[in-house]
Amino acid sequence: MAIIQEKKLTFKIPEGKKKERIDTFLANSIEHASRAKVQKLLKNGLVKVNGKIVKANYKISPGEIIDVTVPIPPRPDKIEPEDIPLNIVYEDDYLMVINKPAGMVVHPSAGNYTGTLVHALLHYTQKLSKVNEEVRAGIIHRLDKETTGLLVVAKDEWVHLKLAEQFSSHTIKREYWAVCWGLFDKPEGEVTGNIARSKKDRKKFAVSETEGKHAHTFYKVLEEFEFTSLIKLRLKTGRTHQIRVHLSSINHPVFGDPTYGGRRISYGTNIPKIKERVNKLLEIMPRQALHAKTLGFIHPVTKKEVLLDSELPEDFTLLLNNLRLSVNRE
Predict the structure, then answer these.
(1) Do domains 5-72 and 175-291+317-329 have the same CATH topology?
(2) pTM for the full model?
(3) For the segment 14-45, what is each residue's pLDDT rounded down to a tens digit?
(4) 118: Cα separation from own chain's centroid
(5) For the segment 40-54, what is each residue's pLDDT rounded down to a tens digit?
(6) Residues with catalytic annotation?
(7) What is the torsional sign of CA 16, 21, 23, 27?
(8) Residue 302, CB half-sphere, CA atoms under 13 Å: how many?
(9) What is the fold of 175-291+317-329?
(10) What CATH number does the domain located at 5-72 have?
(11) Strand partners for 226
């Protein structure tokens, strides 16, 4: 496939930045980039540090300048099915529920024309709802690229519309688990506030008093650690980045979230042992620690409730085990 354009990116490593592998740093800094994609850029000599080509295991240092050339392939005329494994937790003749892994984009969009959930679905089955164009075949709702968890897919148009009605009327049961920074004053509570495009960065969202759409999030603390909390969240509305934006707005960003402050150490910055421990935890969780754990809805055909729960992904479980270990040592 011919390259029709490329994007140039430059990063200056700030003072005080801990040394880390360049592939990890870039995967967290470049939008829509996975570690595998970054490693391919490095392998092809498209990443330079202070003007010199480096390898994936190179460790960045404060003051260094990183230049990245990102090739942008043309948008394909047709979506080609791809043999990508799917974790299917429920399936019948009318719908499917997928447990989406981290790093998978739900449907093709700018910069992500291959490797999406839709590509995998088109390879798995010919039976997908055509309510939307092919790039969103069967897709009723989305999860962020680095958010894991349960997502329902429609196999025909009528089922798609009936499930969409449940999402619109907020009767779908959705519960997320997240590890976030800080300890809460109350064991449970709620966050409200319109969510709109950020005026500082159009790729991000922010809470706004005058613009955007109303958003409402409920949370309950499940477990507390030294400087983080494991919480369960329930959405009354479903806005883009809602949980991540709302938690960041109350100074409890999702741990590991590179977009909304979750990778900024907000506790123990002057205590070397704590800072070292937090950096190790951030290495375990290179993304936001957010998982769509439970999904429930009324089946449009059988009229019975479908209520599904999913296991936490490996990185999330490893993070929790390490947080618990730190608490037990004290």
Answers:
(1) no
(2) 0.77
(3) 888 888 899 988 887 886 677 788 999 999 99
(4) 17
(5) 999 999 999 999 999
(6) 144
(7) negative
(8) 10
(9) Pseudouridine synthase (3.30.2350)
(10) 3.10.290.10
(11) none
